[in-house]
Amino acid sequence: MALIGNALIVGGGVGGMCAAIQLRKLGVAVTLVEQNPSWAPDGAGITISGPTLRALRTIGVVDEVLRRGGHWDAVDVCGADGSVKVSVPVLPAIDGEGLPGAAGIMRPVLADILGHAVQAAGAEVRLGVSFSAMTPDDDGVDVQFTDGSRGRYDLVIGADGVHSAVRKLVLPAFAGPAFTGQGSWRAVVPRRRRNSTIYMGRTTKAGLNPISETECYLFVLDKREGMDFIDREQWPARLAELLAEFGGQVGEIRDALRAGALPEARLLYRPLAGHMIAGPWHRGRIVLLGDTVHATTPHLASGAGIAVEGAIVLAEELARRHSLEGALLAYAGRHYDRARLVVSASGRMGQIEREGGSLDEHTQVMRDAQEKLRAPL
Ligand SMILES: Cc1cc2nc3c(=O)[nH]c(=O)nc-3n(C[C@H](O)[C@H](O)[C@H](O)COP(=O)(O)OP(=O)(O)OC[C@H]3O[C@@H](n4cnc5c(N)ncnc54)[C@H](O)[C@@H]3O)c2cc1C
Q1: Beta-strand (E) ranges in the chain?
Q2: 268 within ligand 1 shell (Cβ under 6 A)
Q3: C-beta of 290 in contact with ligand 1 (< 6 A)
Q4: Domains in the chain and their CATH numbers?
Q5: Is residue 207 within 6 Å of ligand 1 at its C-beta?
Q6: What is the pLDDT of residues 62-72, one digit of tens each?
Q7: What digits encode the pLDDT tens for the residues 286-341?
Q8: What atom of ligand 1 comes closest to residue 289's alpha carbon?
């Protein structure tokens, strides 16, 4: 007998959408509420690692992601002047004939692909809606929604991101994510190369990853003292300052920023925060997924990937266990180590960057983690 007949998912990000698709495959009636009426995330690029491509194949969307995104099999490592020093092949695709080593896509495009898959799977999607109260009992969870409606669910999945409201019901003592000492800059610019490109400056590292046939995104990590937000009007000048030492395409981006030719709408700045919460990740019939319990910095480009993997593991455990408690314990138990690997290796890479530590150690931490993440879920 199925453990649950229906489920509410709070949060329509990558994790929530993949959970909706996987639960529909089990025949569970799914309602997904997303507070953002447009259901579109920030207009930034996102990198999709090999293990994430494998997970998106399980979800059923990898062909569309590769069709609408960009992909590469090698990284060109350049000096600050933009000259290529070495081309390093990315690890080959995992057991997936035909999959590239890595890919990139605009976040709103990925959200569009997953959103269509959620609706095609038959989930009920309610946009511009959140919950205002949840009352769990032994047999279900009564939910009051912000639009005044009510519902009762066998399981509630909190997939509402790093600042989760559902988490307050499951882990009321958790203090919130910690600032990691870096900020992230991203900009959408024209694509010039087949490969991903990294520029190694004296004080700053910048990278360009393809997100389609014609565009790529620039990413730069910046050492910062506090979690202060920077006014949008200052973004072009602040990013240009960070790129002072570069030539090549990154130098041209700096010059365009200074000339006002790269509008602030193509840029995004965000201070980085994260956490790794020990399991169990549920209380009764409410369970947490994705950034709510493991929010990471972008150093391994795997945060969204582990949210997708969490959704796959949660659905698999719900399908094969004989009790809901057993399934929710097994989900956290099975997923925890991979999530912790991503959060801790990313954190260590950020620390090395902030402290100007060993480049060899940085590369080693990244390669070790990438190798381990190739293991089956
Ligand atoms: C700067 C930066 C760069 C990154 N780059 C990469 C990368 O290249 N590759 C990668 O794999 N990962 C990357 N990540 C990590 C990745 O973005 C996250 O791990 C991923 O988005 C987590 O997905 P999620 O579904 O758990 O949460 P989210 O994507 O945050 O989705 C949460 C959703 O819940 C909604 N919501 C919030 N509160 C409520 C509420 N109360 N009610 C209803 N809805 C609600 C939000 O609107 C949102 O749609 C990066 C992260 C950062 C900060």
Answers
A1: 6-10, 29-34, 45-48, 70-72, 74-79, 84-89, 102-106, 124-127, 131-136, 141-145, 150-153, 155-158, 178-190, 196-200, 205-210, 215-223, 267-276, 282-283, 286-288, 294-295
A2: no
A3: yes
A4: 6-71+107-176+274-372 (3.50.50.60)
A5: no
A6: 999 999 999 99
A7: 999 999 999 999 999 999 999 999 999 999 999 999 999 999 999 999 999 999 99
A8: 26
